[in-house]
Design a protein that fits this description.
CATH topology: Rossmann fold
Number of domains: 1
Low-confidence stretches: 1-18
Largest sheet: 6 strands, mixed
Radius of gyration: 17 Å
Number of strands: 9
Number of helices: 5
CATH superfamily: Phosphoglycerate mutase-like
Helix content: 25-40%
Length: 196
């Protein structure tokens, strides 16, 4: 029985990793298109050009340093934050949301520094306040850092469908985009993005 449990656990881990690896890689955004892979493929995201749709971009914090109670970013994490800036540079965001954890703040810092804007902080224990703020934004786009524990609630709130993470740990290379009309349920798009 113990061998079965070990083999089954390895099967689940492999399935989770394969699910993540099978996601398309987001390379760039050139409104209204998302440029995928090595730049040879793209998909149109109408919300990038439609003033009546709201786009909610969500990312986990980049790779964190191993030192400290509230760690910053490792070298790879700093590169990932810069890559995020490069990918999102052509998207006009009205708001930039983050929790107060240092690694989340630093993940969005290159983007907020380039735009000379401030972060809006939210409490992951009070998602209802966050939801109200987002609903009041109308069709304006936003980007936010999220946590593994709260991401399913956020996705369910804005898509109307229950969602379970197809991975076993908090991957730093995922980007989630919800496209919705204000007051309506949206569609979830999930991609990976690479450091280099």
């Amino acid at each position: 029985m113990r061998i079965f449990a070990i083999v089954f656990g390895m099967f689940l881990l492999t399935a989770c990793l394969n699910a993540q690896d099978s996601l398309p890689v987001l390379k760039d955004i050139r409104p209204p298109f998302l440029i995928l892979g090595e730049g040879r493929d793209s998909i149109e995201l109408k919300g990038l050009s439609a003033a009546t749709s709201q786009l909610i971009f969500m990312v986990f914090h980049a790779e964190q340093d191993v030192i400290g109670l509230d760690p910053g970013l490792s070298t790879d994490g700093r590169w990932r934050a810069i890559k995020l800036l490069q990918i999102l540079k052509k998207v006009e965001f009205e708001k930039y949301f983050s929790t107060t954890f240092r690694n989340n703040i630093l993940t969005l810092q290159p983007l907020t520094d380039a735009r000379q804007v401030s972060l809006s902080y939210y409490d992951q224990a009070d998602l209802q306040s966050l939801f109200k703020q987002i609903d009041l934004m109308g069709p304006d786009d936003l980007v936010m850092t999220v946590h593994q524990q709260t991401l399913p609630q956020i996705i369910e709130r804005f898509t109307g469908s229950p969602w379970k993470a197809p991975y076993s740990s908090q991957p730093t290379d995922l980007i989630f985009i919800i496209e919705r009309k204000p007051g309506q349920k949206g569609t979830l798009h999930t991609f990976r993005y690479r450091i280099r």
